[in-house]
Write a structure and sequence with these properties.
Distance between the termini of chain A: 23 Å
Shape of chain B: elongated
Radius of gyration of chain A: 21 Å
CATH topology of the largest domain in chain B: Rossmann fold
Number of helices of chain B: 11
Number of domains of chain A: 2
Order of helices and strands of chain B: HEEEHEHEHHHEHEHEHEHEEH
Helix content of chain A: 25-40%
CATH architecture of the largest domain in chain B: 3-Layer(aba) Sandwich
Structural class of chain A: alpha/beta
Order of helices and strands of chain A: EHEHEHEHEHHEHEEHEHEHEEH
Radius of gyration of chain B: 22 Å
Number of strands of chain A: 12
Largest sheet of chain B: 6 strands, parallel
Strand content of chain B: 5-15%
CATH topology of the largest domain in chain A: Rossmann fold
Strand order of the largest sheet of chain B: 7-6-8-9-10-11
Structural class of chain B: alpha/beta
Largest sheet of chain A: 7 strands, parallel
Number of domains of chain B: 2
Oligomer: heterodimer
Chain lengths: ~325, ~325
């Protein structure tokens, strides 16, 4: 299979890179000084594209690769891939569902705990050498707080299961009420936000869910409420979030994703009631290896004419 | 004479508030409706007072007790009571209570918070983003997955049990060490901490500090835990041999640590300040308004039980 050309869009995992290199003629787009020329030069041999949550096959790239057969994404989010175009051209798309669910849900709980218990602020304080006996600050208890989940899919359910172990009542919003859960359903995000203390975004990013957390939702969540975003940056109206936090209309936020990654609004850097992570929801050694194996496994299956492991299209 | 009559008629039992200047009992005003409070060992009431509230880590020594010949109850406001001379209390027939379950959920939450922070590098990654390094440096180094980790709990009391319950929901397996095997518990028991460490990826220290548990996490235990192992301490600083722990961390002989307590608080070994695989916190696992509300109820319930000769709510028991 060494003759099959595979285009990797950005560096994402060294193990994945090695495994692809061993099997295919791997083209690393980020190493090319002139990307359009690079793509044009290899267009006749590239039959697969490997991308991730921040770099996918858009319409332009798909048009530029006439021999493209499959897009294998190193992510569960596929909003950077033009799925309609892929369907139209008969290009297969695979992703990495399920295997990253636990890591993302773990991080959601980690962010809730870190924001409520002011963990990062405490760590900064101790490291500054300023700790004096009797000088303490109260933080907010997590156990028992009501957790509202936007999108009760795999990740939302995993967050709910963990939060239940902290005796947290669970409620949710999704497009339709789920018949197989006992959690309380609210038919709108504003109602959900009014009735919970911690609101977590765990739905896919689509046209309908863009800015699903807007000013009205933040105001409903209120000055004691905490927003957790482990979904996608554009789920949240970021300028509105910044002003809600600065004006104290929102109690705190734990963010793993942003609208213009890796740019993070600098106004947030000085706030103690926020925790800012660099999109590490699935960033564990264990999970990234399983994801890499799935990307490679899907490509292998495709080129051996076997059923795909985790097909989306 | 009128004043004296009033004092005699005051039905509220007398209680001594025993505290260091830097530690004030939160919500102390709420006690006044139930009890007559005073706060000096030197005051005349000291000879007749039967109950004392020990605030925070204020020492209760044989010398303290010598001032209080009628004392029959020490109400602690913390979970651990290493600052109270328990042997001396026992000898004098003085009962001792602790905070009971008041803090358990908060401390268990905090242990999980520290563990998630160490494994997923939350505080270190937050520093990375705030310093503006993300656009320049690109992807942040990978952390470790919590699910599937073998958790060893040192001291399966009320806090340890709450920790176990939470971590099982993350797909972890749990084993424990305590003085005695608990018949009602299904988690595997190890009679010594070394064997627990050999069979664990993470040790969570939440037992009481006593002569037997001092430095229970020593060089041998750290070696047994190994290079990928993580230590979480929400108990007391002296449960861990801090000098050894610092050496292990600096030399990369252990994976990481999340510490809310230290041997010489508020002093923290400076070698730790430069490490990204440790999370440091200024002994505040219990400090939430919800804790204080719960503590207040426990204190009042213990005192009321004592003064009406009923069983105490949370007599101190070692795990």
């Amino acid at each position: 299979m060494e003759s099959i050309g595979v285009l990797m869009l950005i560096p994402m995992n060294s193990y994945l890179e090695q495994e692809l290199q061993r099997r295919y003629n791997l083209f690393k787009l980020w190493t090319a000084p002139q990307k359009p020329q690079f793509i044009k030069g290899h267009a006749n041999s590239i039959r697969a594209v490997v991308g991730n949550a921040s770099a996918g096959a858009d319409a332009e790239l798909i048009e530029a690769l006439p021999r493209l057969e499959i897009v294998s994404s190193f992510s569960v989010g596929v909003d950077k891939i033009d799925l309609a175009k892929c369907r139209e051209k008969g290009i297969r798309v695979t992703y990495t569902p399920d295997v990253l669910t636990e890591d993302v849900a773990d991080l959601a709980i980690g962010l809730m705990l870190a924001v409520l218990r002011r963990l990062c602020e405490s760590d900064r304080y101790v490291r500054s050498g300023k700790w004096k006996k009797g000088d303490y600050k109260l933080t907010t208890k997590f156990s028992g707080k009501t957790v509202g989940i936007i999108g009760l899919g795999r990740i939302g359910m995993a967050v709910a299961k963990r939060a239940e172990a902290f005796n947290c009542p669970i409620c949710y919003y999704s497009r339709t009420e789920k018949s197989d859960t006992k959690y309380k359903y609210y038919p709108s995000v504003v109602e959900l936000a009014s009735n919970c203390q911690i609101l977590v975004v765990a739905c896919p990013l689509t046209e309908e869910t863009r800015h699903i957390v807007n000013r009205e939702v933040m105001n409903a969540l209120g000055p004691k409420g905490v927003l957790i975003n482990i979904g996608r940056g554009p789920h949240v109206d970021e300028p509105e979030l910044v002003s809600a936090l600065i004006e104290g209309r929102l109690g705190g936020a734990g963010l793993d994703v942003y609208e213009h990654e890796p740019e993070v609004p600098e106004e947030l850097f000085g706030l103690e009631n926020v925790v800012l992570l660099p999109h590490v929801g699935t960033a564990t050694v264990e999970t990234r290896k399983v994801m890499a194996d799935l990307v490679v496994g899907n490509l292998e299956a495709h080129f051996l004419n076997k059923p795909l492991l985790t097909p989306l299209v | 004479m009128a004043t004296e009559d009033n004092e005699v008629e005051d039905p509220r039992p007398l209680v001594l508030i025993h505290n260091l200047p830097s530690f004030k009992l939160p919500l102390q005003d709420r006690l006044i409706t139930h009890f007559r409070l005073f706060d000096s060992l030197a005051s005349p009431e000291a000879s007749s007072v039967r109950a004392l509230i020990c605030v925070g880590p204020t020492p209760v020594t044989a010398d303290t007790l010598d001032h209080l010949p009628s004392l029959r109850l020490v109400v602690g406001s913390s979970a651990g009571l290493d600052h109270v001379d328990l042997a001396e209390c026992r000898r004098r027939g003085i009962a001792v209570t602790n905070s009971g379950d008041a803090y358990s959920e908060n401390v268990a939450d905090y242990a999980v918070a520290l563990l998630l922070d160490v494994l997923r590098r939350v505080s270190a990654a937050d520093r990375f983003v705030r310093s503006g390094l993300w656009p320049q440096m690109g992807e942040y180094p990978l952390g470790c997955k919590l699910g599937g980790k073998r958790i060893g709990i040192v001291g399966l009391g009320s806090i340890g049990s709450e920790v176990a319950k939470r971590l099982v929901a993350f797909g972890c397996t749990v084993a424990y060490n305590s003085r005695n095997k608990k018949p009602s518990v299904m988690y595997p028991y190890y009679a010594n901490v070394h064997d627990l460490a050999v069979n664990s990826d993470v040790l969570i220290v939440c037992c009481a500090l006593t002569n037997e548990t001092h430095h229970i996490i020593n060089k041998d235990v750290l070696t047994a835990l190994g290079r990928e192992g993580v230590i979480i301490n929400v108990g007391r600083g002296a449960l861990v041999d801090e000098k050894e722990l610092v050496q292990f961390l600096v030399q990369g002989e252990i994976g990481g640590a999340g510490l809310d307590v230290f041997e010489n608080e508020p002093k923290v070994p400076k070698e730790l300040f430069a490490l990204d695989n440790v999370v440091l916190s200024p002994h505040l696992a219990v400090l939430t308004p919800e804790s204080f509300e719960a503590l207040n109820k426990v204190i009042i319930a213990n005192l009321k039980a004592f003064f009406s000769n009923k069983p105490l709510l949370s007599p101190f028991q070692q795990e």
